[in-house]
Design brief:
The chain is of the alpha/beta class and 404 residues long. It is built from 18 helices and 8 strands. Helix 6 crosses helix 8, helix 10 crosses helix 17 and helix 17 runs parallel beside helix 18. It is globular and about 60 Å long. The structure holds zinc ion.
Length: 404
Amino acid sequence: MNIVQWFQSVLVIFSLLFTSITGFFNGTNKDAQLLQEKTGGYMYGVCHPDENYERIDELGLGWVRFDIPYPYNADGSISNSYTEFKNRARGYADQGIKVLAITPYPRSYFDIGGFDPSTDENAERTKEIAVFLCNDLRDIISGIQITNEMGVTNFTYPLTMEQAAKFIGIQAEALSEVKGDLIIGYNSAGVMEELHYLMKPYLQYMDYVGVDLYYGTWYGGELHDYVSAVRKVNRITKKPIIVAEFGYISAGEPKSDAERAEILARYGYDSEAAARADIENFVAKLPDALKSHVYEEFPDPATWGDAVFEAMDKHFYCYLDESLTGIAHTPEGQAEFYSQLLPNLKKIDCLAGFFIFCWRDSPTCWYCGQSDCPYETAWGITDVNGNPKPAFYAIKDAMAAFKE
Ligand SMILES: [Zn+2]
């Protein structure tokens, strides 16, 4: 062996070593790879899409994610909203776009079905509905997320966390026996360790665990928190992860004391204390959507002041006081968010896919009913008319780079 050959051998050994070390840290999580084999590759998706299939395809997204309504009416017949869901899901499937479908929230089992779906006594009924959905939809959808974000008050109501975990677990166990090619999972709003620990007995039934992340909007944080949150949920659950929702709203700003006072004055009060002192009349004047959350989720009127001014204050005052450093809540900032974050998400070895939240802006906030509330109006990567915002093109560029 001459010196050149020796040097070449050393280089080969070093490059093999380097490949295996970077492979260890990048993209060789076996569970995530197995999941991608089942799903036909990395899951690039978007939440709550419209029917503009060409635009979804233009971005290179292969998946959409939206809710399955409760399938029955109170008399046991199939509900119209469920039939509409099926038609809509079939529309995507016919275009080759896969559907990750979210099973109904607990409250519809109480409100429509008339039973608590989390008890041992009612477990068979809960299982029957899960199995019905799976069998009825298996040719149309490609994956099931069992309910959504248990732990968030509005979604979990009227269950406790323990009951919510059991509600998921009962369905997961039933689905595991009939799922066939469908992938099954559940999701948490943020890391939410408590939910994942409560889910430990049921993780054996899951193909993935989803995590929804909103650093810089719903709560503080920075871009690197997205990566560490994914890794943390993977460490707790030992399951491949899907970021089931993430996004950055393109509007919203903090509100000054004077601006808050002006909003209170519209209701006829000069301070929060004055509104709290007249709480029943004050709540009666709230926008209908916001009022119904207070009435339904806070049965004790003694808690209504805290409900409006603490639990729901962002919606009541329509303010946004969180942002990522250097990334504004503007259409341009929203584009920057995706440009910076997507390449970092793609590098996470235990992550098998992500779903952008969401497709289209909404004229009013579904939660509080106000058009000037940024929270559920400005998440879209297309505007209220379905036209691309700057974020659309930022995602398109990132997706093109992933597929090179
Ligand atoms: Zn709102």
